[in-house]
Amino acid sequence: MPDNEVPTLYQWLGGIDALERLTNRFYERVRTDALLGPVFAHMDAAHPRHVAAFLAEVLGGPSLYSSQHGGHPHMIRQHLNRHLDQARRRRWVALLLETADDLGMPDDPEFRSALVGYLEWGSRLAVINSQPGATVDEDAPMPQWGWGEVKGPYVA
């Protein structure tokens, strides 16, 4: 990458290998977490890898999640009728960030601000999409997140 080119968040954090380490360790911790464990009790063994692919695409990496799993509409479907709440959402975000720290992922202010921004935005959408009556827009674009994203209001 040229010196004057700003890396994507995906590049900055270390690519798919770093994301797979993060999601593998994170979901190991989720299994034993009192609040999150029951939500993920029947999690498929491939779940951490799928989440790593989703995050990779969102953060500027390859579009593997879209090509192999169905993109954002598929992710939305995974949350339908899960009845997630704010306590579980907050714990999910906190545990993911703790895991990132434990693994020595970048903690510079710019990266961590962008990561936290996406995790807050995305996890709040997951809560909305997990409530009764939520539907899937089959044309929902894959979120794209960078160094200074601001999204407009969520309109169902």
Automatic annotation (TrEMBL):
The keyword DNA-binding does not apply. Keywords: Heme, Iron, Metal-binding, Transport. CDD domains: TrHb2_O-like. Heme binds at H50, H74. InterPro entries: GlbO/GLB3-like, Globin-like_sf, Globin/Proto, Hemoglobin_trunc. GO terms for molecular function: heme binding; metal ion binding; oxygen binding; oxygen carrier activity. The keyword Heme applies. It comes from the Bacteria. Belongs to the truncated hemoglobin family. Group II subfamily. This is Group II truncated hemoglobin. The lineage of its organism: Bacteria, Pseudomonadati, Pseudomonadota, Gammaproteobacteria, Lysobacterales.
